[in-house]
Amino acid sequence: MTPASDPSFPRASGQLPRELAAELLELARANGAEFADLYAESTVHTGFVFEENQLKSSAFSIQQGVGVRAVRGAQTGYAYADGFAAEDLREAARVAARIARDGRGGATPAFRVVEAAAPFTLVAPAPLALDEARKIALLERANGAARAADHRIAEVSAALTDLARSFVVANSDGCWADDEQYLSRLTVEALAIASDERQSGLAIGGGAVEAGYYEGERTPESIGAEAATIAATLLAAREPDAGAWPVVVGPGWGGVLVHECFGHSMEGDGIRKRTSIRAGQRGEQVAASGVTIVDSGVVPFSRGSFRIDDEGTPAQRTVLVADGVLVGYLWDLLNARLSGERPTGNGRRTSYRHFPLCRMTNTYIEAGPHSPEDLIGSVERGLYCKSLGGGSVNPADGNFSFQVTEAYQIERGTLAAPVRNATLTGNGNDAMLKIDGVANDLKIDGSSGSCGKDGQWKPVGVGQPTVRFTSITVGGTAA
Amino acid sequence: MSTASPRIDPTRLAGPAREAWCVGAATAAVARARAAGASAAEAAVDSGRSLSVRVSGGEIESLRQSATRELGLRVLVEGRIGFVSSNDLGAAALDGLARRAVALARHSTPDPANGLPDAADTGGDAPDLGLVDPALLELGAVDAIDMALRLERAALGFDPRVRRVEVAAVSRSDASVALANSDGLVRASSATGISAFVQPLADDRDGKQQSGSFGSEQRSLAALPDLEWMAGEAARRAVARIGARPVPTARAPVVMHPDIARAWLEEMYGAFTGSAVVKRESWLAGRLDTAIASALVTLVDDGRRPAAVGTSAWDAEGVPTRRNVLIDRGRLAMFEYDSYWARRAGTRTSGNAARAGALPGVGYHNLILEAGGESPEQILARIDRGFFMDDQGSYGFNSVTGDYSFQAQGFWIENGAKAYPVEGVTVAGRSLDMLRGIVGVGNDLRLDGAVASPTLMIAEMTVGGS
């Protein structure tokens, strides 16, 4: 099966004739909106769940439709139609147009196709190139490996979910762009039970990957074994000591920390509306010197990467913080225009049913000079967080928290007992200033992340090298 | 064979006409699935309209109108399950979907517990539960915009230190859903919804901001709290947090604001599901009919509470809902099941099938911890020194162990009253210890969504701070 001929994946590009697109944009601006855009999408999801040693469910879903946005000043009108029937689309355009009521529209200039180099290309994207039987075989292998990794593994749930998305975006400035995106994710959750104790471990692989990824970079066996090892390790873990401690966070997914407690505050909507503490801080020291923070939509094979964003702007690498100093923000079209900035390719939406928001792509801390061993070795007593779970921030007040899924006590510079149920908390206003060591082992996790904002979920990548914080408040039951 | 006409747009219909359209589409999908080789099939079709408004600075920030239709089709082929969903309900698309569902099912492992609900479980009445509010059907964009503007204005007018409102939003919806299966079961219903949310920001020192919020979701306009009152509550909470600081680490009594208590209930719910019990993933497994909580605690899942957000007459498999008592004065009284997990556990469904993506799941309707007799002030008055928690981070619950560890904001309590605002702390404990340690249940139960709790006082937890 090749992507181009797969009949199960109808492309959006063939569904929206340019003459109709021009007519819809005109309708959307008929009452005086300054800007309008269309987002036509066709997305296919498949999902398989393997648990209790059996394939529990197989699922397929297809969603197709077009969203129409009309913008006047800082105001957005939005409506959409399921499917591509011309009359439904005209109705959506008329509804969106109502955001403006005291003006006249204008014609859309001839469309010109957005030229943008692909950050990477997939020859045989996993969602299309693997058939059902091969996807299920991956789950069986992950399940087997997890159960074999430790005799205390009592249950394993393995899921493979993927999507193929095709979209076209056209706007009243004459922009025309289309793209296809392919994401695959293999998730294994293992439950370990020993006498009265039960613990679970989670491991994830995937990204915007080739079918061959699961035979090379990350096999289902390695994902299954990792989940099982975490669960088994936690059986013997102790509760963390609550209080403020030096904390070292491991590479890769640990970057969820910079995503939550810094990245969100750099999104253009909060900057324009000045609800973010970072508004007006360009040129200021916002992180410790030696800390460089980047948002890049062009990281190869990551969930957070794309050729063009959901508004037709090419993806780019944006430096947010250079050596501790704030140098740039993230911008979508609307907030960039209202703020006199240049869009940075951060306009993203969950589907045609949503209007775009300013969102991160792959956000990470660049590598530093230290070795990870040196960073851990310098801590007298503290916590090493090998992997974090979910994290959240309240962008308004900066309070953040992270669930720590696998951690170890640091005693006199070496890793000691495993620790469970730790929570990290602090305030994003000063968290990046508390970094006092950045290692040279940068890893970007392009497999796992999904970021929620205003009810819209979007795949993202996060990353960092091993990073040491002078002090973070650790939550736990031991006091 | 009835066929849904693709030329009729169901989203432009309302009430009975839209229900009838959904029923037609669902029965057509079941028929196609049978024709494609399914031994049994179940289809759910929903269609609805919604309108969401957000305002900022006295102007509309966004106005979004939705009109959706969606089909979910579950097929059985000799004990194997396949699931498809789509928003294209045209005849040709239905045929393709049905064939795909059957083909997918052939990949699954046969399981004798798979199947439609037993006929003995699907009978019963479908009373009017007050889920449709005619006033909401009439509520247009102009009305919703006006409501959102009132929220913003009232929040800004509450205190000079409230100078910005991060969110002032109102949305309304009306939808119909139909369920049909190859045993001839047909169910249909409609519901309306309204929600309002406001989050003002108060200026703190050094350019810092504090936020407070209030949100409510209801089935009828009349049930929505007064907008100015909601905005005032949110603004009061933001202003009260000015100057918040950490406290030293301590073991102390913790009072949970209803928002915090209901978030905890929602996290704990998984342990009450038959699926978690059968898979040994529940920290409550093996504790049926034992005391798992203080005698002050009665927890119910009421699928038929009139006009409530989680109410429906039947569950996602067409089984009538009921009022299930999960914790009866401290005793674990039951787990909840859909028909698959009930068969696996050797029991009967409790009317808790939920439609959540691919796997048939177990879910609650209205999860409510019943009110006690004390006012929140009376509860606080009992505490010499402790922590009142009224905001938290999103992650911090371990569903397998019930371990609880959240970033928290709130107030330090001294001598029976709130002394000063606190942030930058964590609150941790084990759910079983916390349930048993509940020594106060407030009389302030209100339903602003499908999960609700009054104020709770827990005898001792770990507050992690500076």
- How many distinct helices of chain B? 11
Could you estimate the helical fraction of the residues of chain A in percent? 10-25%
Instruction: Name the shape of chain A in a single word.
Output: globular
End-to-end CA span of chain B: 70 Å
Poorly predicted residue ranges of chain A: 1-5
Q: With helices defined by DSSP (H or I, 4 residues minimum), what is the helix count of chain A? A: 10
Broad CATH class of the largest domain in chain A: Alpha Beta
- How many β strands of chain A by DSSP? 24
User: What shape does the CA trace of chain B take?
Assistant: globular
The H-level CATH homologous superfamily of the largest domain in chain A, spelled out, is PmbA/TldD superfamily
- Number of strand elements of chain B: 20
So what's the oligomer here? heterodimer
The fold-level CATH name of the largest domain in chain A is: PmbA/TldD fold
Describe this structure in words.
The complex is a heterodimer of chains A (479) and B (466). By secondary structure, chain A is an alpha+beta fold. Chain A has helices at 18-28, 86-97, 126-129, 132-149, 220-235, 256-261, 268-272, 333-339, 372-377, 428-431, and strands at residues 35-51, 54-72, 75-82, 112-113, 153-171, 175-194, 197-207, 243-249, 293-296, 317-322, 325-326, 347-348, 357-358, 362-365, 381-393, 399-411, 414-419, 422-427, 435-438, 443-445, 450-453, 456-459, 461-464, 467-475. The model of chain A is unreliable at 1-5 (pLDDT under 50). Chain B is 23% helix and 36% strand. In chain B, the strands form 4 sheets. In chain B, strands 1, 2, 3, 4, 5, 6 and 7 form a 7-stranded antiparallel sheet that branches. In chain B, a hairpin with a 4-residue loop joins strand 12 (353-355) and strand 13. In chain B, helix 1 packs across helix 2 and helix 5 (141-156) packs parallel to helix 6 (227-240). The model of chain B is unreliable at 1-6 (pLDDT under 50). At the A-B interface, strand 1, strand 2, strand 3, helix 2 and helix 4 of A face strand 2, strand 3, helix 2, strand 6 and strand 16 of B.
